[in-house]
Amino acid sequence: MWQVMETLRQSDNSVEEAARYLDLPEHLVRACVAYYAEFKSEIDKWTREEQSFAERAEAAWQREQEALDARG
C-alpha cells in the first residue's frame, strides 16, 4: 500500500505511470488510492516507520562496508 502511494508521488500522481512501473493493473492502483483516502493517517504513519527502518538498515550496511574496507 505505502509503496504504491510513494510511487504515485514520484510519478506526479500518474496512476498509469505508477501502474506500469509497479507492473500492476490500474484498477489496483486506484483501489490503493481509495483506501489511502479513507485511512491516510495510518498509512502515513506506516510509511514513516518503513522509511525509518530502511534508513537504519542502510546505515548498518554502510558501517559494515566501511569495516570491511578498513581490513583491506
General shape = elongated
Total E-strand runs: 0
Query: Which parts are unreliable, with pLDDT below 50 for 5 consecutive residues or more?
Result: none
Tally of domains: 1
Distance between the termini: 42 Å
What's the helix count? 4
- Rg for CA atoms: 17 Å
Average pLDDT level = 93
Strand content bin: under 5%
Helix and strand element order:
HHHH
Helix content: over 70%
Largest sheet: none
Classify the secondary structure makeup into a structural class: mainly alpha
Task: Give me a quick take on this structure.
This protein has 72 residues and is mainly α.
Describe the structure in your own words:
Helix 2 (15-22) packs across helix 3. The protein is an all-alpha fold. It has one domain (2-71). It is elongated and about 50 Å long. The chain is built from 4 helices and no strands.
